[in-house]
C-alpha cells in the first residue's frame, strides 16, 4: 500500500513501513474499511502527521482511540470536525484552557489549528469500527505509534509531552525527561476529571512557559 503522508514523516518512518507487522496492519485496515463502517474517513487516518510535520513538532498529546460515532473522528486525538458537538473530554479540555489562560471556549472543536502550530495530536490506535470502541486495538497500531514516540524522543529535543490519564502515561513512560518536558494529569473525560487531577493542572500555560524559555513560539490554545 502506498502510504500518502507528509514528506518529512515518510522519511522518518520509511523503515517502519517496510516491517511485516505494518504490512499486516494495513491489510487488516483495508479489509475493515471495505467490509464495515470505520472511522476516521480513510483519507484522514494519517491526518495528525499531515497537519504537523516532523520538523515543526513542539508538543505531543497522546490519545487512545478515535471517536467511534458518526462524523466525529477527524484523525486528530480529542478533535472533531467543524459543526460537530463537543464530546465530554473536549469540553473539559476547553474548560481547563479557559481557567488556565482566560481564553474563551471556541465555537469549533476542530483542533487542526493546534496541529498547524506544531501540536502532534496522536491517538495510539488510528482507526476504529463504528460504535465499537477499541475494535482496532492490538492489530499493530500501538506498535506503530510507539515507534513514532520513540523516534521523537530520540531525535528531537525540548518537546512537551502531555500525558493525560494512565494509558497515555504508560505509553510515554520511556520518554527522556532530561531532554523533554513531560506533564502528567488525570484524563479529561468526566469520569476521571471530576475526581480531581485534571482541572487546575495548568498544562497549557506550563507548555507555553517552557516553549518561551527555549526561544520557541508559544501555542495559541
What do these coordinates show?
The chain is α/β, with parallel strands linked by helices and 221 residues long. It has ten helices and six strands. The chain has helices at 7-12, 14-17, 20-35, 47-50, 88-101, 112-115, 141-155, 166-171, 190-193, 203-213; strands at residues 38-39, 59-63, 119-123, 128-129, 160-164, 181-185. The chain has a four-stranded parallel sheet. It has a two-stranded antiparallel ribbon with strand order 1-4. Strand 5 (160-164), helix 8 and strand 6 (181-185) form a beta-alpha-beta unit. The chain is globular.
Notable features of this structure?
10 helices; 4-stranded parallel sheet; 221 residues; two-stranded antiparallel ribbon; alpha/beta; 6 strands
Radius of gyration, in Å, reads 17 Å
Biggest sheet strand line-up:
3-2-5-6
Q: Which whole number gives the mean pLDDT? A: 96
Number of helical stretches of at least 4 residues: 10
Share of residues in strands: 5-15%
Low-pLDDT segments = none
Q: What is the distance, rounded to the nearest whole angstrom, between the alpha carbons of the first and last residues?
A: 36 Å
- Residues in helices, as a percent range: 25-40%
How many strands, which pairing sense, and closed or not: the largest β-sheet?
4 strands, parallel
Total strand segments:
6
Structural class: alpha/beta
Run of helices and strands? HHHEHEHHEEHEHEHH
